[in-house]
Each structure stands twice: as structure tokens, then as C-alpha cells.
Amino acid sequence: MQSLQRSDMKIHQILPSLSYGDAVSNDAIEIRNALKRMGYDSDIFAKYIDPKVSKFARHLNQYKKTANNIVIYHFSLAGFDVTDFVKQLPDLKILIYHNITPENFFKDINDELYYICKNGRIELKTLSKVVKLGLGDSEYNKNELDSFDFRNTGILPILIDFSKYNVCPNKKIVKKFDDDYVNLLFVGRISPNKKQEDVIKSFYYYNKLNPKSRLFFVGSYNGMEKYFFQLEKLVNKLNLADVVFTGKTTFDEMIAYYHLADIFLCMSEHEGFCVPLLESMFFNIPIIAYNSTAIPYTLGNSGILVKEKRSDEIAEIINLVINDKSLRTRIVKIQNERLKDFEISKTEEKLKNYLEINLKNKNC
Amino acid sequence: MDTIEIKDAEINVEEIMCKIRKNIKKRRESGTFTPEMDALVNEPLQSHNGNTEVGDLQTELDYIKSNCDVHADYSIRTHRPILGRPLVWGRKLIHGEVKRYVDLIADKQTEFNSHVVQSLIQIEKNEKELSNRLDTIEKELSNRLDTIEKELSDRINKNEEDLKGKISKNVNDKVSKVFDLITKDIENKVWLANLLDRRLKLFQQPLQSTAKPETLDINYFIFKEHIGRSWNKLSGESVQGVPNIFDDALNLFKEGKNILEIGCGEGQFLQMLKEKSIQGYGIDINEDSILYCGRKELIAQQVDVLTHLKSLQDKTLDGVFAAHVIEHMQSYELKQLLELCYAKMQFGSHIILVTPNILNISVSSNTFYMDPTHLNHIHPEVLKFLLESCGFRDIQERFYQPVPDELKLKKIDYNSNAEDKKIHETMNYNTDILNNLLFGYRDLAIIAKK
User: Is residue B6 part of a domain?
Assistant: First the structure.
């Protein structure tokens, strides 16, 4: 009965844009895979689709609405007509909220993004009465949904299939940087909310302690050229030779940087989940991260949380973690334990539970 | 507050923080971490918001450099899973065709932009060179200024020290000179006191004089010492700040090389001549006076005036000064003195004769007689006549030694509106006449030119 019900039931996902390599798109693809494993007919519908991931998605205008279906709407930016489209659907609606970066971070950097982010929260409010279930991918996001009067909320962490990370790292990159340098790493698009300048400042002090050190920024700076330019100016001003901005990378290139890294340093002041923290946990890289937004929820009891941005002290902490093997081992161990909480089977189970509860309520 | 938080009971965060802070302290002490580093990282990010601001040239140049290539990459993608591939292929084909034409313009624009960038880079380079040169010049100037300042300071200090040394030496020399003079004066005074003491003792002995009865044999030194106190009581002390005969005489004799002082006494005027580097000498009949002048290294000889004048060659004296001498002489002796002076003086030289002012009744009737060696009242008109008779010209009389006001008759203070104003005016007018008559100048001098 249950399986029949599932085969009739379609659970689709909608998002404005399905891109290659970004956390929300990856989450949607993994949920699609999980739903299929659960026996549901599931597709992703998007207005814009990157050809690299086009096999996972269909255009939004192909969506067939029906009250029997469930639609999961991924919300991380204002969707405008996509949101309007979702709102008028008769399907049972579930929102997965990935959080919206406060628009002020983009002031004078990217006017379009400023506008989209500003409208994002306005749209979010209008969805509170429309969706049956609001899921935050972190407790931080769930709390925000609660503050927007969503009636039924829960937490569904981002689904990550770490088996895919066991790929061969890009050999060229590994070869290029395979030396006795200490490598600090931050993964994430170049964006003012991620405060890459504070990472550079801490590295500046650490570089004085250990001139054989390097800093990698792995992430695209498309649309953030002005901010990227500011960061380059800072690097030049501080006369730092070993700061590498990789720009957008392929997956195996990103894996290579994780393989090279000794410390993951994150000074971000706004994260809805921060997937690179889990990736660092997976690659046994000690994490030093600023205590903001979703970061403490994702880290749980693991990693080193920075409560105050004192570049000199952070540099000393880096130095300590690099040189104190027992401390490093202990931190990595706790991180590994924390990573277990995000095993795909566990998250999948959570998703399953949420769906079943809501299906019951729907049938009732 | 700890900067970090590690939620693990096995890790002691406090201990870690303590270690970290200790390390930072060491780094700061050793100069690994510096305040300049803190200042650098605390500066705000340099933004590029599209607005050109003054002083933002470097930012603009960097922006232009990184954006001079106008070729744009366009990512062709599709959401259609099956039709996607041919669609992308088709679009790429069209895109390629269009790009052939657009690229011509883009190439030209990029080439133009490259030239602009090269020019700007050259300008920037020149600007940097100029700026560096300016910095070098500024530094050099600053260094030179510092050197000059140091040199000046050293010189000033050296000069100050030299000056202090010189001033100190001059002051010491002057003080030493004054002390020498005072010492010498004291020695002279001691010598004089001893001499007077000896003379007084002789004076107090019973008179066994061998001198002729028609001459008055008194010691003039002792007499002056004795009579001086009474004289001051009657005449009052000298009034300061009024013309005195010595200043006038020094002025008249300033070019002289051979000035004669008749009756030089203790050499007061000779001393003044010496200090002004005016050559002169004195004569006196008093032996003690001559001895005293000798002690003061003044040129003086004991000789009778007429005898001395007769011994001189004619027209050899550049001036003659005789204070309180002529009233001690008989009229014929005075006439002979004036004639001899005229004969011995050079043409154009001056003679100055000072005598008690007998126009002042208190002098002529009182103080004149306090010297028993005074023989005659000398009326200024008589003296002028005698001088004129001898051939002297430009004869003028001057009065010296005024009586202090407190010894004079007092005038009445009155209100100018008072009814008895006229009486008071008359009384005060009369008082002035009486004061002139009774308490006029005590000395008169007749100055004449040969």
C-alpha cells in the first residue's frame, strides 16, 4: 500500500536556478536521488539550468501541477516569478530555506544581488502562510523561519554524498603545490559576507611566524569583481606573495586543494549552512571558524570557534594547531565524530520522516 | 574573554589562550608583530565603487589595467536535456559567426585600450620616478637643514660660551680695576689720614712757630677737614643733576694737551683730566697736597703760581683752570696772574676762574669768612673787566652750586581763585628775589677765551 502510494506520489523540487557546484543545487540533486531511492517519482524544475547539470533538471514551464503532488521549493534568493509560480500551485508545498545573505553586504559591490537579497526576505514572509512545512538546513535557518511565523518548521541538513569525494585530486595542482609549505584554505565564492579580508589579515600575521606558508581561496568571484579587486589590493598592500585566488574550479581541482590544506580558516559573517566545514571534516582538516550565523550549528562541538577577530591571536592559534600534533589529532577526531551526524543515510531518514508526517496530515 | 572556544573537555582553552598571549607578548617584544602591522590591517578596504575620487589614481589605474581587454566570454547553456546538445551546438555556431565580426571591433578597442594602458603605465612610472626624486630631495633637504641647524646650534653654543667667558673676563677685569682703584684710594686715604694725624699732633702742640708773624701759617688740609662739616651745615649738600663746573671745564679742554690747574689741591680735577685722557698738570703751594697728588700718580708740583707762570714759555698752555684760588690773592697779584696767563696761553684756549659768588649775601657775608685765607671778594663784573683788560674775549659768567630748596625761604601755596591772590603773588615774587639774594648759587665762574 505504502509503495503504491509512493509510486503514485510525485515529489518534485523547484528552484530558480540549478547551477554546477553550488551547495543549494547539489542539495537538490542529492534530495532528488534520495527521493528516487525512497521510491518517489522526483524531478527538479528550474528556470535556469546549467548544461553541466541539465540531466538532473527540466524547465519550469514543464511542471505539471496537481494537488496530489508535493513540491519542495528551495529558497536562497528572491525567486520573483518562480516564487509566484510556486505560490499558485495546488501541490502540498514544503520550503527548504538555505538562508539569504543580508543585502547590505553587497552594497556598492553587486547592485543586482543587493536587490535580489533585499526582496528575498520580503518574499519569504509571503511564503509563511502558503507552505505546509518550512525546513531550515540548519538550526539557525529554522529559527529564522520561526521568526517569520512559519507554522510548521524543522531542520533538514544539506544532503552530501561523501562517497563522491573519493575522487583522484587534480594532479597538476597537487604537483604544483606539493612542498613543505603550510597551506591555509578557505573554500567558498568570493563574497563580502564571507569576509575573506579577515582571513588574509590572520594569514598576514601567521606568515610572519612562518614565511613558508600559503593561503588558498577556492571559489568563483563572478559578479564579485569589485570585492575581489579590494582583496587583491589588500594582498598587495600587505606584500603577501603566497595568496592564491583560484577562481572557479572543477570538482577534482577543489578536492586537490582540500588534500593540500593544513588548516581550514573561515571568517565568514554569514552562512546558512557552510558545506565546506563538512568537507574539511571529511578531509581531516582542522577547522578554525568565526562564530557567526549557522557556523556554530554546523560545527556542533567540533572545530575551533573564534569569538573575537584578533588577527594576531588567530595567527598564534593556527601556529599552535600546526605544531601541536596532539591538539590537531584531537580536533580532527571530534570533527570526524561530528561528521557522522551528517551521514547521508541519517539526513535521508530525517527527510523521510518529514515527508511521512506531512503525508499523513495531508491524508487526514 | 577568550578569543576562541573549543567545546571539548579534554582541551584546556584557558591554558591555550595563556600560551597564545604569552607568545604574542614575545613576538611584540622581538618586533615580529609590530604596531605598524596592526595599523595596516586596521585600515579599511580600498574600494572601487566606480566613483573617481581625488587621490585615487592608483586605484583607477589598477582597474583600467585589469579591464582593458573588452573581449567577453559568453557561456552557452540550455535546460533542455535532449534538445540541449543540438541547441547549444547551433547557438555556438551562430555565436562564432557573430563573434568574427564583433571581434574585429573588440580587437581594435582592446588594442586601443592597450595603448592607453601602456601610456598610463608610462605616466605612472614617470610620476613614481618624480615622486621618488622629490622624496630624495626632500630627504636631502631635511638632512641639510638638520646639519645646518646642528651647526648653527653648535656655533651659537660656542659663541654663547665665548661671550660668557668674555663678559665674565670683562666684568672681572672691571671689578678688579674698580677694586684696585678703591684699594688705591683707601691706601691714599690711609696715607692722608696718617699725615693729617701727624699734622694735627703738631698743631695741638704749643705754638713755637718760626714762621713770620705777618703770615698765617695753617695747614690747609687740616683746616678743610675741620671746616667742611660746618660749611655743609650752612650750605647744604651738593644738589645732584644740575650742571657742574668740572663737566663744563672738561668739555672746553677736551682738545687740550697742556692744561694747567692752579691750586690743584688733592687733584680731583687732575684725576678727571687723566680719566678723559686730557694731558694736564697742577701746581699748589701746599706740600701735603702735592705729596697726595704724587701718590695718585698725578703730575703736580709745589710752586707759587706767579713764579711758575713766569717760568713758562709764552703761548704754551692749552687752558688754565683755577677754582677757589683768586679770592686768596691781592688785587694786584690777581691782575698780574691774568696778564701772565694771557701771555702763556695759546690763542683760542680758555681760562676758567671759579670763586665764591659774592652776589649771594649768605656767601659774601657768611660762608666767605669761614676761610681765613680768603682776602678779597671778587665781583664778577670786576673780574670780567680785568680779563677784558688783559685781552681775553668771549667772556661769560656761569653760576654753579645751587642751595638746596629746603634751605631757601618757603613760598605760599594759594588758590588761583582766592581773593588775596595778588597778595600771595607779590609775596612769592618777593620771596624769589630774596631767595636769589640770600640763597642764590654759591659759586660763580668766569670763562674767557684768548
Answer: yes
CA–CA distance, A193 with B350 (Å, rounded to integer) = 112
H or E, element range at B175: helix B84-204
Can A2-160+343-363 and A163-340 be said to share one CATH topology?
A: yes
Please report the pLDDT score of residue B371 as a whole number: 85
Domain that holds residue B270: 244-449
pLDDT, one tens digit per residue, over A35-63 is 999 999 999 999 989 888 989 999 999 99
Average pLDDT estimate for A251-267? 97
Average pLDDT over residues B86-112: 85
Q: Which residues of B touch A (CB under 8 A)?
A: 1-8, 10-11, 16, 19-21, 23-24, 27, 32-33, 37-38, 40-41, 43, 45-49, 59, 62-63, 66, 76-81, 84, 88
Same domain, yes or no: B30 and B86:
no
My answer on whether B258 and B370 are in the same domain is yes
Average pLDDT of the residues of chain B:
84
| Helix, coil or strand: residue B44 | coil
A313 shares contact with chain B (CB less than 8 Å): yes
Domain match, B1 and B106 both: no
CA-based nearest residue to B361, from B427, B259, B434? B434
**B209 in a domain, yes or no?**
no
For B12-27, the pLDDT digits (tens) are 999 999 999 999 999 9
Q: What pLDDT, in 10s, does the model give residues B201-233? A: 766 655 444 445 555 666 666 676 666 655 555
Is residue B199 situated within a structural domain? no
Residues of chain B positioned with their CB less than 8 A from the CB of A231:
45
pLDDT recorded at residue A51: 86
Task: Name the CATH superfamily, with its identifier, for domain A2-160+343-363.
Answer: Glycogen Phosphorylase B; (3.40.50.2000)
pLDDT score of B440 more than 70: yes
ipTM over 0.85: yes
How much is the pLDDT for B343?
95
- What per-residue confidence (pLDDT) applies to B75? 55
Taking each helix axis from N to C terminus, what angle separates A325-340 and A311-323, rounded to the nearest 10 degrees? 90
Strand extents, DSSP E, A41-131: 44-49, 57-59, 70-75, 92-97
Task: Single out the residue in B164, B181, B207 at which a domain terminates.
Answer: B164
Please state the domain extents for chain A: 2-160+343-363, 163-340
Query: Are the beta carbons of A233 and B20 separated by less than 8 Å?
Result: no
Pairing of strands A304-306, B4-5: antiparallel
**Residue B34 confidence (pLDDT):** 94
Cα angle value A75/A77/A78 (rounded, 5°): 100
Buried-exposed string A339-350: b where 16+ CB fall within 10 A, e elsewhere:
beebebeebbeb
- Give yes or no: residues B28 and B158 share one domain: no
Query: Sheet holding A133-136: strands in order across?
Result: A57-59, A44-49, A11-18, A70-75, A92-97, A133-136, A153-155
DSSP 8-state class, residue B406: G
DSSP class of A107: T
CATH topology of domain A163-340: Rossmann fold (3.40.50)
For the segment B314-333, the average pLDDT, to the nearest whole number, is 93
- Considering the domain boundaries, does residue B394 fall inside one? yes
Q: Tell me which residue in A306, A312, A320 faces B16 most closely, judged by beta carbons.
A: A320
What are the chain A neighbours of B84 within 8 Å (beta carbons)? 51, 54
Q: Which one of B33, B62, B79 has the shortest CB-CB distance to A57?
A: B79
| Cβ–Cβ gap A316/B2 under 8 Å | no
- Residues B148 and B277 both lie in one domain: no
Number of domains in chain B: 3
